[in-house]
Write a structure and sequence with these properties.
Helix content is 36%, strand content 24%. By secondary structure, it is an alpha/beta fold.
């Protein structure tokens, strides 16, 4: 895992070195715009975090790895993102995985959902200032949300039967669910489970489960 020193480098170059290394393992090539806007977004998040408690990760290097790089893995899975598609990020927190994926897939519209107004305020303000036009943050409980999407993703929410069934009802026909699990968690069991993929991130084993409804 990447560790921050007392004088952590928060430059675009440091961000690019960390994220690029992991993205290449996934077989992904990222644009200069991704690195530019991604590093600025991360710096803004950590600045806001001093007073608004957006994330428990407070170091630039660790956040680049565990927030940005980790968010990119679904880009390796065929069929999840396409021109004109819509995606919902549930429990987005400071904007993950929604913002990194939105930078990677500018022709997909991303709705980022969280119950914490301060987090959604940060997402909307920072996305607008950086020109990330395919991101919209909404402060709302998932169970009160009524729109439908082609893809629903969640990286930090416990997936139980109630949560899973709610997400299923919000999918368009042939839509997908994509959820992250730690190495010690078992993916939620359902007949719609399409595949489970494991990967390593900074020495940590991670896995995602994809369902198609």
């Amino acid at each position: 895992m990447v560790k921050d020193g007392a004088e952590a480098d928060v430059s675009r170059e440091t961000f690019a070195d960390i994220v690029k290394s992991e993205a290449e393992k996934f077989g992904l090539k990222l644009s200069e715009e991704f690195y530019e806007k991604g590093s600025e977004y991360l710096k803004e998040m950590l600045f806001w975090n001093r007073t608004h408690n957006l994330t428990t990760i407070t170091g630039f290097r660790e956040a680049a790895l565990l927030h940005f790089a980790d968010s990119l893995f679904p880009a390796t899975i065929d069929g999840l993102f396409f021109e004109g598609s819509t995606a919902l990020d549930v429990g987005t927190g400071g904007g993950f995985p929604g913002v990194p994926l939105a930078l990677l897939f500018p022709k997909t519209g991303f709705t980022l959902l969280d119950k914490a107004r301060k987090k959604i305020s940060f997402i909307n303000l920072t996305s607008a200032s950086l020109g990330i036009g395919n991101v919209t943050g909404i402060c709302e409980n998932l169970f009160a949300h009524s729109k439908k999407y082609d893809l629903i993703i969640s990286r930090a929410v416990k997936v139980d039967a109630e949560f899973f069934e709610c997400c299923k009802k919000m999918l368009n026909k042939n839509g997908h669910l994509c959820f992250w699990f730690s190495s010690i968690q078992e993916p939620f069991k359902d007949d719609s489970l399409k595949e489970i993929r494991s990967y390593e991130l900074g020495g940590i084993e991670r896995k995602t489960a994809v369902y198609q409804i």
